[in-house]
C-alpha cells in the first residue's frame, strides 16, 4: 500500500466517468494482483477496460486535474467509505483485507463496461461517485466544477476603470451606438451645406413677409403723419424724427437678407441661368430685381433720413431745415418710400407664390461636375 | 477629405463673421453716441472681412482641386467671390476712413455730401453682393466633390500638362 501511493497521479487517465477514476488505482495494483495470485477473470477485467478507454482519454482531455489531486489527497478513510458504499449496493459480504478487496471491487465495477448484465449497478456507482466527489471536494477546492454559465453582469472598461454593467443593457447601448455612428457617418459636409442653405431659405421666407408688412406699415404711418395733401409736414418731422433712422437701418437690414435670399432663388452667380430667368420672367428673377431696386432706392435716401433724424425747427440756430424747403425734400422721400413698399410687397407676393422654388439648390449640388468641362467645350468651339 | 465637424465649425464661424458685418452695416449709424464706438465697430468690421477672406482662401487650399495644382480652375470658379471680397474690403475701409474723419470731432454732425452718399451706396450695395457670393461659396465648398478625385479633374489635369 505504501509503495503504490505515489504512483497513481502519473498514470491517471482523465476519463470523465466515475469508473475510470478507479482504473489508475487498479493499474499499479495489477502487479500486486499478479503476485497475490488473483484469478484470471479479475486480471482480464482490470486490464481490458484500461486499454479500451485509452483512446477516450485523448478525446476528453479536460477531465479535471482535480481528480488527479483528489487521488493524491484522498485519504484512506475515503476509500474505505467508498468501498463501503459500493459494498452496500453490490457486495453484501464484509470487507477485511484492504488491497485484495479493493481490487476485487474495482474489478466488479469495471466489469459492467464489458458486459451489459450489470448496467444497473454501474449507474448507481456513477451516482455514488459523483456524490462522493461533491461531498469531499467542496471544502478543499473553490474552483467551479460545472460548465461555465454566462452571467448577467459584464465588466466594461470605462474611464480606465472596469465597471459592472448588465449584459442586456450593454447589448442595447452598443446597438444604439452603432446606429448613431451609422447616422453620423452618413451626415456629410454636403448635408451640412444643404441644411444651412435650406435654413437660410426659410429665414429669407420669413424676412420677405416681415419686410413687406413693415414697409407697408412704414408708409401708412408716414402718410398719416403727413396729413392730407402733405399739409402737416412739420408734424411729420416732429413725430417721425426719432423713428426715421432706426426705420432706415431696419429697412436696410431686412432688404439685405431678402435680396440675398432672392438671389439664392435664381442662382445669380451663374450668369446664364440668371439671364434666362430674367428673360423668361421667372417670378424669382423679377423679385430679385425688385428687391435690388428697392435697396438702391432705400440707400439713396440715407442722407434725407439723417437730415430728418437731426431735425430741429427751422428757426433754431444750426438747423438743417429751411421752412420753405420742407416739402421739396420730403415729397420725393415719401414717394420713394411708397415705391419701396410697393416693390417689396410685390416681391413678397411673387416669392411666396412658389416658396419652394430654388435654382441654387438644383444647380449647386446636383449639376456641378458637369459644369466643369468648360474648357472641353471651348476647345471644341475653337477647333 | 474634409471632416463634417470641421466644416460645420468653419461654416459657423463664417456665418458669425458675416452676421457681425451685416449688423454693423445696418445699425452702426444708430450707435454713434461717441465717435470711439463707431471707430471700434468699424475696425472690427474690417478685421472681420479680412478674416473671412483668409478663411475662404484656407478652404480653397484644402480642396483636392487646389492640391492637384489646378489653382486657376478654382479661382475661375470663385472669381466673383474673390473680386467682390477685395472690392468690399477696399470700399469699407474707404468709407470708414471718410466717415470717421468727418465725425471724429462731433459724432452727431450732419456729414453727408454727394461724394460720401455715393460711396455709402456703393459700399452697401457691394456688401449685399459680397454676402450673397460669400455665403454661396462657403456653402458650395461643402460639396465633397471638391475633396476627391474625379474624371473631370483628371481631364483638366491632362489638359494643363499637355
Main attributes?
heterodimer; A: mainly alpha; B: 162 residues; mainly alpha
What does this structure look like?
- Chain B: It is a multi-pass membrane protein.
- Chain B: It is found in: Cell projection, Cilium; Vacuole membrane.
- Chain B: One of its GO terms (cellular component) is cilium.
- The complex is a heterodimer of chains A (383) and B (162).
- By secondary structure, chain A is mostly helical.
- Chain A is built from 18 helices and two strands.
- Chain A has a two-stranded antiparallel sheet with strand order 1-2.
- In chain A, a hairpin with a 2-residue loop joins strand 1 and strand 2 (161-166).
- The longest helix of chain A has 38 residues, at 189-226.
- Chain A is elongated and about 110 Å long.
- The termini of chain A are far apart.
- The relative contact order of chain A is 0.07.
- Chain B has 162 residues and is mainly alpha-helical.
- In chain B, 78% of the residues lie in helices and 0% in strands.
- Chain B has helices spanning 4-27, 35-62, 64-67, 71-77, 79-103, 114-140, 151-161.
- In chain B, helix 1 (4-27) runs antiparallel to helix 6 (114-140), helix 2 runs antiparallel to helix 5 (79-103) and helix 5 (79-103) packs antiparallel against helix 6 (114-140).
- The two termini of chain B are 28 Å apart.
- Classes of the chains: A mainly alpha (383), B mainly alpha (162).
- Chains A and B meet through helix 10, helix 11, helix 13, helix 14 and helix 16 of A and helix 1, helix 6 and helix 7 of B.
Amino acid at each position: 500500500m505504501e509503495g503504490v501511493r505515489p504512483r497513481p497521479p502519473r498514470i491517471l487517465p482523465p476519463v470523465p466517468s466515475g469508473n475510470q477514476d478507479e482504473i489508475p488505482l487498479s493499474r499499479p495494483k495489477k502487479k500486486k494482483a499478479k503476485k497475490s495470485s488473483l484469478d484470471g477473470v479479475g486480471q482480464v477485467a482490470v486490464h481490458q477496460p484500461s486499454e479500451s478507454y485509452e483512446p477516450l482519454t485523448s478525446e476528453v482531455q479536460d477531465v479535471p486535474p482535480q481528480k488527479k489531486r483528489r487521488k493524491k489527497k484522498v485519504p484512506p478513510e475515503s476509500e474505505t467509505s467508498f468501498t463501503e458504499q459500493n459494498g452496500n449496493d453490490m457486495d453484501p459480504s464484509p470487507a477485511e483485507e484492504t488491497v485484495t478487496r479493493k481490487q476485487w471491487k474495482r474489478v466488479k465495477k469495471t466489469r459492467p463496461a464489458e458486459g451489459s448484465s450489470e448496467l444497473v449497478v454501474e449507474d448507481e456507482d456513477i451516482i455514488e461517485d459523483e456524490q462522493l466527489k461533491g461531498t469531499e471536494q467542496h471544502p478543499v477546492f473553490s474552483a467551479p466544477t460545472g460548465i461555465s454559465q454566462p452571467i448577467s453582469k459584464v465588466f466594461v472598461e470605462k474611464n480606465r476603470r472596469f465597471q459592472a454593467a448588465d449584459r442586456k443593457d450593454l447589448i442595447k447601448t452598443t446597438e444604439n451606438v452603432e446606429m448613431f455612428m451609422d447616422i453620423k457617418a452618413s451626415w456629410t459636409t454636403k448635408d451640412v451645406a444643404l441644411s444651412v442653405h435650406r435654413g437660410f431659405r426659410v429665414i429669407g421666407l420669413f424676412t420677405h413677409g416681415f419686410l413687406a408688412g413693415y414697409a407697408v406699415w412704414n408708409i401708412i404711418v408716414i402718410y398719416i403723419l403727413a396729413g392730407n395733401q402733405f399739409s402737416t409736414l412739420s408734424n411729420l418731422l416732429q413725430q417721425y424724427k426719432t423713428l426715421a433712422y432706426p426705420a432706415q437701418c431696419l429697412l436696410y437690414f431686412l432688404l439685405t437678407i431678402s435680396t440675398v435670399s432672392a438671389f439664392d432663388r435664381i442662382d445669380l452667380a451663374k450668369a446664364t441661368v440668371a439671364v434666362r430667368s430674367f428673360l423668361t420672367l421667372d417670378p424669382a428673377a423679377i423679385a430679385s430685381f425688385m428687391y435690388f431696386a428697392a435697396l438702391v432706392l432705400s440707400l439713396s435716401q440715407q442722407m434725407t433720413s439723417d437730415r430728418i433724424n437731426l431735425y430741429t425747427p427751422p428757426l433754431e440756430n444750426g438747423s438743417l431745415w429751411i421752412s420753405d424747403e420742407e416739402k421739396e425734400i420730403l415729397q420725393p422721400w415719401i414717394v420713394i418710400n411708397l415705391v419701396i413698399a410697393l416693390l417689396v410687397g410685390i416681391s413678397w407676393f411673387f416669392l411666396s407664390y412658389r416658396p419652394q422654388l430654388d435654382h441654387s439648390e438644383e444647380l449647386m449640388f446636383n449639376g456641378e461636375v458637369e459644369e466643369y468641362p468648360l474648357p472641353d467645350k471651348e476647345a471644341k468651339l475653337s477647333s | 477629405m474634409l471632416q463634417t465637424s470641421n466644416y460645420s465649425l468653419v461654416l459657423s464661424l463664417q456665418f458669425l463673421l458675416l452676421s457681425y458685418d451685416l449688423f454693423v452695416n445696418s445699425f452702426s449709424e444708430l450707435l454713434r453716441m461717441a465717435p470711439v464706438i463707431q471707430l471700434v465697430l468699424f475696425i472690427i468690421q474690417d478685421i472681420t472681412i479680412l478674416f473671412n477672406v483668409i478663411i475662404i482662401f484656407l478652404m480653397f487650399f484644402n480642396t483636392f482641386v487646389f492640391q492637384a495644382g489646378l489653382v486657376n480652375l478654382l479661382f475661375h470658379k470663385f472669381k466673383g467671390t474673390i473680386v467682390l471680397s477685395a472690392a468690399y474690403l477696399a470700399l469699407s475701409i474707404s468709407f470708414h476712413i471718410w466717415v470717421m474723419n468727418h465725425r471724429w470731432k462731433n459724432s452727431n454732425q450732419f456729414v453727408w455730401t454727394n461724394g460720401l452718399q455715393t460711396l455709402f451706396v456703393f459700399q452697401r450695395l457691394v456688401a449685399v453682393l459680397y454676402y450673397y457670393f460669400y455665403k454661396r461659396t462657403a456653402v458650395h465648398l461643402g460639396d465633397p466633390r471638391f475633396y476627391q478625385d474625379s474624371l473631370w479633374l483628371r481631364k483638366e489635369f491632362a489638359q494643363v500638362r499637355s
